[in-house]
Write a structure and sequence with these properties.
With 133 residues, the chain is an alpha+beta fold. The protein is built from three helices and eight strands, in the order βαβββαβαβββ. Strand 6 and strand 7 form a beta hairpin.
């Protein structure tokens, strides 16, 4: 794993939260998009080398809607940048981690993504990210 790629934050209202993070970070969101497969709208902020992804549910059955219902708004996941997501997934399976994805899938911000089960990582949902070439 190369570095923390971003921190994902589950929010109830993306428009309201965009305003909060614009004031907090002093920058505007550089990208907003919908990821239908995950049932979310996302908004990305860059502050120095750090990225924040805000996630709002667009369906009641989305993982973000379920997360907010159970835990409320807050940090949802930490994403790590990897060179080769398939190799990293195989390595982590070999180390005994449970992956929530059999293979990488297309995520937000032009990334291939896969997730590790939080039961194996002290309750933290871990996302692996690789740039789509």
């Amino acid at each position: 794993m190369n570095k923390i790629e971003h921190i994902g934050i589950a929010v109830k209202n993306l428009d309201v939260s965009n305003g909060i993070y614009e004031r907090l970070l002093g920058v505007s969101s550089y990208k907003q998009e919908e990821v239908e497969s995950e049932g979310v709208k996302t908004s990305f902020f860059q502050s120095g080398p750090n990225k924040i992804e805000l996630l709002e549910a667009i369906r009641e059955d989305s993982p973000i809607a379920k997360f907010i219902e159970k835990r409320g708004e807050g940090i949802h996941h930490i994403a790590f940048d990897v060179e080769d997501i398939v190799v990293e997934m195989e390595r982590l399976r070999g180390e005994g981690f449970i992956l929530l994805n059999e293979k990488p899938k297309k995520g937000a911000d032009n990334k291939w993504v896969a997730f590790l089960h939080p039961k194996e990582t002290n309750g933290v949902l871990i996302e692996l990210c690789q740039d789509v070439k």
